[in-house]
Write a structure and sequence with these properties.
GO terms for molecular function: hydroxymethylglutaryl-CoA synthase activity. It is a single chain. With about 375 residues, the chain is of the alpha+beta class. It has a single domain (about 5-385), classed as Peroxisomal Thiolase, Chain A, domain 1 (3-Layer(aba) Sandwich). About 35% of the residues lie in helices and about 25% in strands. The strands form four sheets. The chain has a nine-stranded mixed sheet, with helices on both faces. The chain has a three-stranded mixed sheet with strand order 3-2-14. Helix 1 packs across helix 2 (about 30-35) and helix 3 packs across helix 4. It is globular.
Length: about 375
């Protein structure tokens, strides 16, 4: 029996910032962003969207009347939680009209949370192959205006169903992981923007990748020649390129070319959306599926990293049911119909945060199905426009 990723969908708001314009406004060479960081655009998140609404907008594309009653758990990875106590998964469960006899849990370890969800889900489905698990990664990356991390902001959500006999990726049995108490990135409860030691975090990311990759090889006796492509956690796309270059010498010259071609395919979407935190690896995987030429049976390696720090390497083979045409068409339409905002509008939207009191928000400019309409009696008011 195969277990793995059956569906994988995405949502981010339709507003975006062009990073060439941001570079001009910040008086830096645009190539510092376009080449040095590897980003071209980033999603701009309005106040009418938060991690719950973005997750619902993504997950509504994988939950339908056929599988709604098969969902046994909702596992919500995020580091942008909206409540110190109540799980974002509980709000999501209600918005998706999922049954009451399920678990709904929020998972947190920086950008690693959704991967923990995938692994927990896989173990559950192994015992209950007739059921499915909904795994979500939803976040808003905030570092502050005119900060070094500003160019690596963004946001959005991915939603996956983990099932037996999946349509996308059959997960292999072995995964390898590593955790250390490291202060490379953190956000205290009293801050709305993250703190990061950028160069240190890059070094830890690469060191973790090399460590879990070596551990994986020793446990499986697989080598780089056994892989068609690697998908990486991409807080910015140059980060994954640095990690890939660390192991490329293990491959033949011909395979190095193939791995680099597939890496370029894997970062197309992330380059245009920005940093999703918990969803970044899985948006990269979706981009790889849609933009590369893949065949059933080929093995893909996945590296997940969450600052603080947790890293994991695992793998899977392309399913015999693999078909990407519908997904690629959706992304083509999404990118073709986004609305570009200028730097002044981006800065205004960035500063527009929810107050600590009741408020009614103007949702008329938000074209999403699920929106945040305000706060009433300290409770966020979510609206499903199709209800």
């Amino acid at each position: 029996m195969h277990i793995g990723i059956d569906q994988l969908e995405f949502y981010a708001p339709s507003t975006y910032l062009d990073l060439t314009e941001l570079a001009d406004a910040r008086q830096v060479d645009p190539n510092k962003y376009l080449i040095g960081i590897g980003q071209s655009q980033q999603a701009v998140i309005p106040v009418t969207q938060d991690v719950v609404t973005m997750a619902a907008n993504a997950a509504s594309r994988v939950i339908n009347d056929e599988n709604r009653n098969k969902i046994a758990m909702v596992l919500f990875g995020t580091e942008s939680g909206i409540d110190h106590s109540k799980s974002a998964a509980m709000y999501l469960k209600r918005l998706l009209q999922l049954p009451d006899n399920i678990r709904a849990i929020e998972l947190k370890q920086a950008c690693y949370g959704a991967t923990a969800g995938v692994q927990f889900a896989r173990d559950y489905v192994a015992l209950h192959p007739e059921q499915q698990v909904l795994v979500v990664g939803s976040d808003i990356a905030r570092y502050g205006l005119k900060t070094p991390g500003e160019v690596t902001q963004g946001g959005g959500a991915v939603a996956m169903t983990i099932s037996a006999e999946p349509a996308l990726l059959n997960l292999d049995d072995v995964s390898t992981f590593r955790s250390e108490d490291i202060m490379d990135f953190w956000r205290p409860l009293y801050r709305t923007e993250a703190l990061v030691d950028g160069r240190y975090s890059e070094n830890v990311y690469i060191d973790f990748f090399k460590a879990v990759w070596a551990n994986y090889q020793s446990q499986t006796n697989r080598h780089i020649r056994d892989f068609e492509a690697f998908a990486f956690h991409l807080p910015f796309t140059k980060m994954g390129l640095k990690a890939l270059r660390a192991v490329l010498p293990e491959a033949s010259e011909q395979q190095q070319s193939q791995l680099m071609t597939n890496f370029e395919a894997s970062r197309v979407y992330n380059r245009l959306v920005g940093n999703l935190y918990t969803g970044s690896l899985y948006l990269s995987l979706r981009s790889l599926f849609d933009q590369a030429t893949l065949k059933p049976g080929q093995r893909i390696g996945l590296f997940s990293y969450g600052s603080g720090a947790e890293g994991e390497f695992y793998s899977g083979t392309i399913s015999d049911k693999f078909d990407v045409e519908a997904s690629k068409a959706w992304f083509d339409h999404y990118f073709a119909n986004r609305t570009q905002v200028d730097v002044a509008t981006y800065e205004r939207l960035f500063k527009q945060q929810l107050p600590n009191h009741d408020v009614l928000l103007d949702t008329r400019q938000d074209d999403a199905r699920f929106v945040l309409a305000g706060i009433k009696h300290d409770q966020r008011q979510y609206v499903d426009r199709e209800a």
